[in-house]
Design brief:
Layout: E1 5-7, E2 15-22, E3 25-32, E4 37-43, E5 46-60, E6 63-67, E7 72-75, E8 81-97, H1 99-105, E9 114-115, H2 123-135, H3 141-156, H4 166-182, H5 189-196, H6 200-211, H7 215-233, H8 238-244, H9 250-261, H10 265-270
Parallel strand pairs: 1-4
Antiparallel strand pairs: 2-3, 3-8, 4-8, 5-6, 5-7, 5-8, 7-9
Length: 281
Amino acid sequence: MSVVFRYSSGEFPARVLRSRTVGGFVCTETNYLPKQAIGNHSHNTAGLVAALKGSFTERLGTRQIVCEPLSLLYRSPGDVHSDLFGDSGGRCLTIEIPRVRIEEIINHVPDTTVLLNDAPTSLGPAALRLYREFRDEDRVSPLALEALILELIAGFSRRFLKKRTGKDERTAMRAREFIYDRWIDGLTLTGIAEEVGVHPSHLARVFREEFGVTIGKYIRTLRVRASAEQLSTTETPLARIAADCGFSDQSHFCREFKRATGLTPLEYRRSSTGGLSAFKR
């Protein structure tokens, strides 16, 4: 009888490139060698596995799941499986879901490992947004990353959730008003959800449905809007504006500002037509 190795949280049969923990979720980027074969094993936590580069085949008994680039796999805790990577190896981002979180959403997740490409939402772009947040460690990124993780969970479990109601709309509006008044503070998704009286995953879902953006992106928009006001009305140095508006440093401020407006902060400051029209509440 073959031995089945059981991996604990944060352990992988691969080279770990980067790891972060937010809201109890352990996020790990791993690299796999060309044609790497991994024998039967299991993990003691549930996980979302995003194939960022390369492909692999996962076998669970007689079942076989082929994960191409941008595939998203839900891995049920304890499922015994083996993996075989392709000629170019692979790179994956794994989001380990702690047991306490699984207990909260147990009726809304599959009871076995499954490929999520056929879920009723487009999960590939969401996985890429999640990876960008995973790589971007500014002060908002922990909240934004946790929100995106919960959004992914809500996305593939949407078929089990009730349709949005008027109550959901009011919840989203209350959350937005709270964030608008407190965006400069170190907000957390859990804290916002407690303020409006709902579960964090539910808030992440209804906020995006109502406003078309994630909570993290909305907070960044408020930060850019505040910085734009300072740029157009003061001569405050960019480094000071960056600090005042919650960006990690001047470089991060310049990058996020241009991404949102198409202009660098200096270009915006010099523009005679600069204004806040792009950042209306």
